[in-house]
Amino acid sequence: MNFHTRKWVRPEDLNANGTLFGGSLLRWIDDEAVVYAMIQLGNQRIVTKYISEINFRSSAVQGDIIEIGLKATHFGRTSITMSCRVRNIITSEPILTIDTIVFVGLDEFGRPKPHGFTDVTFDRDRFPEGLRNPGR
Amino acid sequence: MNFHTRKWVRPEDLNANGTLFGGSLLRWIDDEAVVYAMIQLGNQRIVTKYISEINFRSSAVQGDIIEIGLKATHFGRTSITMSCRVRNIITSEPILTIDTIVFVGLDEFGRPKPHGFTDVTFDRDRFPEGLRNPGR
Amino acid sequence: MNFHTRKWVRPEDLNANGTLFGGSLLRWIDDEAVVYAMIQLGNQRIVTKYISEINFRSSAVQGDIIEIGLKATHFGRTSITMSCRVRNIITSEPILTIDTIVFVGLDEFGRPKPHGFTDVTFDRDRFPEGLRNPGR
Amino acid sequence: MNFHTRKWVRPEDLNANGTLFGGSLLRWIDDEAVVYAMIQLGNQRIVTKYISEINFRSSAVQGDIIEIGLKATHFGRTSITMSCRVRNIITSEPILTIDTIVFVGLDEFGRPKPHGFTDVTFDRDRFPEGLRNPGR
Amino acid sequence: MNFHTRKWVRPEDLNANGTLFGGSLLRWIDDEAVVYAMIQLGNQRIVTKYISEINFRSSAVQGDIIEIGLKATHFGRTSITMSCRVRNIITSEPILTIDTIVFVGLDEFGRPKPHGFTDVTFDRDRFPEGLRNPGR
Amino acid sequence: MNFHTRKWVRPEDLNANGTLFGGSLLRWIDDEAVVYAMIQLGNQRIVTKYISEINFRSSAVQGDIIEIGLKATHFGRTSITMSCRVRNIITSEPILTIDTIVFVGLDEFGRPKPHGFTDVTFDRDRFPEGLRNPGR
């Protein structure tokens, strides 16, 4: 699992109990996961399709640093499935785990688009030539 | 089910497909649900504990108006369980349904706090006197 | 008067006195009122035309929950007039009252557009077929 | 009248008609006016008390630059009254005028605090020594 | 040097040390400087090209008011160069100085566009007629 | 150099030319760099001290994905120095390079605090026991 994004918990991310607000955390996860899906499918038109159950195991307080880990677990015909783990860097505690998040890549008309990939890339060669050309 | 909050979908809520970004929607739901839990439990110290699986059935485009409905389905000793439906006011389409969201009320030390309620209030008489006194 | 939107007062909504910042409150009201006008006029192109005087009677502190109430009071040829009351759910105190807010519905060229309505709807049948059609 | 703050109208400030959203504008005005009141009263604990009626005369589109002008018109015992004009720098059109905005300065207990000023300062010597001392 | 924009330091602008976060400050400066460049070049298509070294000399705490000063120092063929000073209004301390910020004006195809100006304007007569016409 | 944070360029990050706004980019960099400094110094009280000159070499458009790379280059007695590179994942173009960013770690009184580290950690064992203990 790759832990890429780290977030520093700021005052605006807290609930009235002084701990990390669930809604901020879900937004951070979706932000990060959708970018990961874009790179894996070489497509910027990505929509969230499904999120499996979410257990909030512990929280974080102001000033804590959390990191969000994602791992691709399955490539469908037009979709990518990944799992997610969030942990507190300072205390090492797990914050939450999501087994399954499914994103679908769309074509320019908003229809699911077959992507032809079956494994994870560590390069970024999946974006089509038209997008990769600096002269666009 | 009470549909309270309505949101107008603005440019900053869109993904690259021009449809409502999943992360914005989850944040709106949690924002709304936590306030509903505060009122039902008479407690501002509310944390998100569990969210069941989420199916994104359709989306919304810029300028659409969505509304978020919540219904309390169970009162535990320290928790409240609710279900959620989001729909597009203009097209009438369902956007997503979440069967179960669980919030827990905490005391001032961050421990789960028994609330003693077993049914939904339509008044706002659950906040303790100390908070209700304008002279605080 | 319908009280729809509830807001939980968060750290970023406070002024240096630790009370709800007037600018945040005015933005919340306009956000909510413009959506109400959209539904009543069946038109997403709504602009704020006039706001009558605003008395800030009391405020709210962090963690308070406020609710915003709106009532349509008049339908003009191209406009809708409403009144607004904001109150603190926890203390029951009124926060402010605005007697008159006027919104105008525009056509696609930005000109005032007659709407033909004279009373409040509780359905959402005022949006034209083109917008209501899921296949748009 | 001093025109200090200029704002560039960005996508997130637009309504569905593609013009400047009233709520964004009111928030900008209150942000700017409260800072002006802080400087004139030498007090950071400033609350908005009253805003007279607001006529939205014209609007602005994305990319326009607007400027917000404020002028102190009266010093009460604990308050300051100002007027406000907003105009579009590019088209020179007036956007709105507010005759009267009243702010009150508070003491550390949240009570109105006499300020002793009767005219506008162009220096910033009104903040008490304790705040001005870099060693605080 | 003209000091136009003033900012009140709010909770969301603070780092974990309780002082003004460097990233917020840099964003405020760029926001302000780009609007100043738009007015001086009569062009809304302005991009940041170069920023010289930045020394953070002191900071500010919550409730402080800072002001941002900008002065045009050079007009290139397609560019404008300015210097920037930020100071704390309350304590009079300098916060940072940037000797050189360069912006370039672009044409509708994103190419550098000669502007023909060699000195600072205090009027706003540099925007072309098409933009200045209220009937656009 | 480690490339951790990826950002998807959204409408609110664009200037009037439709390219990535410099101020958004600088804020993202400072956000990311300060978290990296926190982990390397085992200290949440981190302030930005110095940023060397910044050349904006190319930009990015809406929907592009950029990544931000950071490398620690020097450990001072109370400071950490790093360099930064930002590139466009899709086009592979470099967006900007900053040779030197200096952060200082502070103690609880806001004074520079010796940290005792001389090399980069890939573990997160630098936070003191008091912070690492989940029972805090």
Word description of this protein:
- 6 copies of one chain form a homohexamer.
- Chain A is of the alpha+beta class and 136 residues long.
- Chain A is built from 2 helices and 6 strands; from the N terminus they run E-H-E-E-E-E-E-H.
- The first copy, chain A, has helices spanning 22-41, 129-132; strands at 2-8, 46-51, 54-56, 65-75, 79-88, 94-105.
- In chain A, strands 1, 2, 3, 4, 5 and 6 form a 6-stranded antiparallel sheet that branches.
- In chain A, a hairpin with a 5-residue loop joins strand 5 (79-88) and strand 6 (94-105).
- The longest helix of chain A is centred in the first third of the chain and has 20 residues, at 22-41.
- The termini of chain A are far apart.
- The mean pLDDT of chain A is 90.
- Chains in contact: A-B, A-C, A-E, A-F, B-C, B-D, B-F, C-D, C-E, D-E, D-F, E-F.
- The interface between A and B is medium-sized, with 33 and 32 residues.
- Strand 3 of chain A pairs antiparallel with strand 2 (46-51) of chain B, so a sheet runs across the interface.
